[in-house]
Design brief:
13% strand, 13 helices, alpha/beta, eight-stranded parallel β-barrel, 2 domains, TIM Barrel
């Protein structure tokens, strides 16, 4: 799989699937299952490493995860986020960061957050020969600016202010004109999401607030399988409940050791 093939899927009306992964085992599983591309998100710091927010992670920290994903899925199409900092400083810093993610991390393309605010960076990275996955969309704060909530936008019959719709379509077109290969759209809902998908020729793929009206979907691997401490005693709406399975397994392991039993998978008598 390559970026051109993802773009061709839009023209053919085929849906593309991306999974956010942060380590070699999950990357291997996701790629083996047939994900079209993998995303290494800078949210690894919060979701796996105990950081308090996404602004804490450095490029050097993040490269550890990117390299692990590449090792786990050598043949996958891999997108890596550019962590906060380089893009906000200068487009040239963004290019340097993107080059490191490709050369050292093994990424094939990079994701730039709030891309409509940094079109020069999108263009500069693209001119350096690295495809850009341009993130854009709505936050709760930006929605309130127009007097509408993110949850309101998730309704298929939601009434979207003309100013909001026009602004978001314009931002998507800015991303495309700047050279973005794909758009990562967040929190747009069905009405805005479909309008943006129809307004640009590049694939519009989304995670939060996305749906079948987009060209494809993004799902965090750990959320899809229900793995994470936040899911304990709070069954997720997901395809599995791995957090509970892990807790049950470790509880049984500890019980076996304390009662003098051989542990499962250990060496010795059963």
């Amino acid at each position: 799989m390559n970026v051109n093939q993802i773009q061709a899927m839009k023209q053919a009306g085929e849906k593309s699937v991306a999974l956010v992964v942060w380590d070699a085992p999950t990357a291997h599983i996701a790629h083996q299952c047939g994900a079209d591309f993998l995303i290494v998100g800078d949210s690894v710091g919060v979701n796996l490493w105990g950081q308090s927010n996404n602004l804490e992670i450095t490029l050097d920290d993040f490269l550890v995860a990117v390299k692990a994903v590449r090792r786990g899925a050598p043949g996958a199409l891999i997108c890596a986020d550019i962590p906060y900092g380089p893009i906000q400083i200068d487009p040239r810093d963004g290019v340097r960061a993107a080059i490191r993610l490709v050369q050292e991390g093994g990424a094939d393309l990079v994701k730039i957050d709030a891309a409509p605010d940094f079109p020069d960076a999108v263009t500069a990275v693209t001119k350096a020969g690295i495809p850009v996955f341009a993130q854009m969309g709505l936050s709760p704060q930006s929605g309130s600016k127009y007097g509408i909530s993110i949850s309101d936008l998730q309704q298929p019959e939601s009434l979207v202010p003309d100013e909001m719709m026009g602004k978001l379509i314009e931002e998507a077109q800015i991303c495309e004109q700047a050279g973005a290969a794909m758009i990562d759209l967040t929190n747009a809902g069905p009405v805005i999401g479909k309008a943006i998908t129809d307004a640009v020729s590049i694939p519009v793929i989304g995670g939060m607030g996305g749906g079948p009206w987009l060209d494809g979907r993004i799902r965090m691997f750990h959320a899809a399988v229900g793995y994470g401490t936040k899911f304990l005693d709070n069954p997720p709406s997901a395809y599995a409940y791995v957090a509970q399975t892990c807790r049950d397994a470790v509880t049984e392991l500890i019980s076996d050791v304390r009662s003098g039993q051989q542990i499962k998978g250990g060496i010795g008598r059963k």
